Amino acid sequence: MSDGLGDKLKGAVDKGVGSAKESIGDARNDQDQQAEGQAQQGKGELNQAKGEVKDRAGQVKDALTPDQE
Length: 69
Fold this sequence. Notes:
2 helices, single chain, mainly alpha, rod-shaped
């Protein structure tokens, strides 16, 4: 399993929930809920980026680690 998979999944959930919150805030004309949704989407994007960095770091580590037979 990928080291960054958990972060990427958490990020996707945060982005989805944040988008829903923002849409509800738009429908209700609730600026606080809109902002909360946008913030949660931003958090999700950061978590997804964190997962990508972990995956790439793992790939570099694997490339630099000699195969042991």
